[in-house]
Amino acid sequence: MRGGFQIIFDTNFLLLPFTEQVDILSQIEKILSIKFIPAILQSSIKELDNLKTKANPKLKKRIRLAKQLIKNFSVISDEEIKGKSFDEKILAIVKIQDKRYIVATNDRELRKKLRDLGIPVIVFRIKDKRIYVEGEIL
């Protein structure tokens, strides 16, 4: 079993288990067969908190469940990357060479940019409720 990867989850991907009734961590473990550390950006946690203040009751529940899910995630500080979008922050972080990253996102534009950098991407296909990987995990 290979290992040493951090999987960075974007905010929307974290809400999938509660909108699509799928266990994303179990599916990822099954398809990757590698040890990994689930991670989230500090700004994504803040985004969840901000969303919760203006969300309807159903979304508030999903956000609360997502926050429970990430309790054991590694938190990546991204405050030094000021004035950039979440996507730009993720791109800046994965360019750091001392770590091996995979990003879990369904954002098409971000997926393309990550693939152009050679970063593997985990995607959730809603129509068949399945997770798959784009790119090679070396």
Tally the structural domains: 1
**Would you identify the CATH H-level superfamily?**
5'-nuclease
| CATH architecture term | 3-Layer(aba) Sandwich
Number of helices: 6
Radius of gyration: 14 Å
What this model shows, in words?
This protein is an alpha/beta fold. It has one domain (5-134): Rossmann fold, CATH 3.40.50.1010. It is 44% helix and 21% strand. It contains six helices and six strands; from the N terminus they run E-H-H-E-H-H-E-H-E-H-E-E. The protein has helices at residues 11-19, 24-32, 42-53, 57-69, 86-94, 108-116, and strands at residues 5-9, 36-41, 74-76, 100-104, 121-125, 130-134. The chain has a six-stranded mixed beta sheet with strand order 3-2-1-4-5-6, with helices on both faces. Helix 6 (108-116) links the parallel strand 4 and strand 5. The longest helix is centred in the middle third of the chain and has 13 residues, at 57-69. The protein is globular, with a radius of gyration of 14 Å. The mean pLDDT is 89.
